[in-house]
Specification:
Blueprint (H helix, E strand, L loop, with lengths): L1 H13 L22 E5 L2 H11 L3 E5 L14 H9 L2 E4 L9 H7 L5 E3 L27 H18 L4 H26 L8 E6 L3 H7 L2 E6 L9 H13 L16 H10 L26 H15 L29 H4 L2
Parallel strand pairs: 1-2, 1-3, 3-4, 5-6
Helix pairs in contact: 2-5, 2-6, 5-6, 6-10, 8-9
Amino acid sequence: MVRLAFSLLAALCLAGLGCKPAGQASPHQTFAGSYPIKATVTVGMIGDLVREIGGEHVQVTQLMASGVDPHLYKPLRDAVISIRDADLVFYNGLMLEGKMSEILNQYSQSKRTMAVGESVPEHRIAGAESEHAHPDPHVWMNVELWGLAAGAIGQELAAFDPVHAADYTAAAERMQRKLTELHAYGIEIMQGIPAQQRVLVTSHDAFRYFGEAYGVEVQAIQGISTESEAGLSRINELVDILVTRKVGAIFTESSVPKDSIRALLRGAEARGHAVRIPDESLYSDAMGEAETYEGTYVGMMDHNLSTIARALGCQTVPDGGFRATLEQKSSTAASTLELSPSTISP
């Protein structure tokens, strides 16, 4: 797939639609065009921050919509053109955008780009302790760390567009204050879960930062990337955890197929332990639908924090979550998930 992406990029370059020749643009240049600034971003969590901080001065084009898995996303012609035509490009880095990382690296030689996830201090990056480890790219799952990313985006916009630097700085500070409050809310409600049941079982390992930030043990069926597959031994391990710890809920993710939970739930049922699943999936690699509260970063994390805490036994989660904004679409204390294919198909 990487070779295919490079072939596409080469074809677009030859057609005059791809990368700019070296020397035509500087990756350190400041903005000298007409407003609004054209910013291309890869994922929604970054897009939301750039929209909030950039305000009226920045027009954001987001490549990956709600429900799109960035690990598996394949950049097509329009995506490459959007990167080429942007004044500024924001992406997560840390190998999140696996199938388009080489294209982003190529453009970084001639265009101002920012790997937002890599703005987090290196010692806070999971997996960075070993040169052979795959860095965990899901830094937005710790709201405190994403607040640092918001500050870095504000600094990048201010450096790129000094004329409006004060606006970007003020907007970044407002966002950071809101995220500080949300982070504190998450810590508080997670402590309301009975200690033995404070176990988060999900489809893939996107919640490591979440677990470290909010004191929850995280167990996943798949690895960091959704390209990995779960083995039978892993399923058996998770069934043991569910049964012995009396964990009452397991969580699906909006951007990950749900088939992998079938064997896990059947295993728990076979041992006489009923496992429930909230009606609403968690948001891991993608936010909710555009123009909804869950389609913002704050709404995404409010949903995750409130849904997890309530389903695992916290009795003090406000009905509307953080700032009473979440809509109660359905009870998260759902009945036992039926194990028919129609119930858990993607």
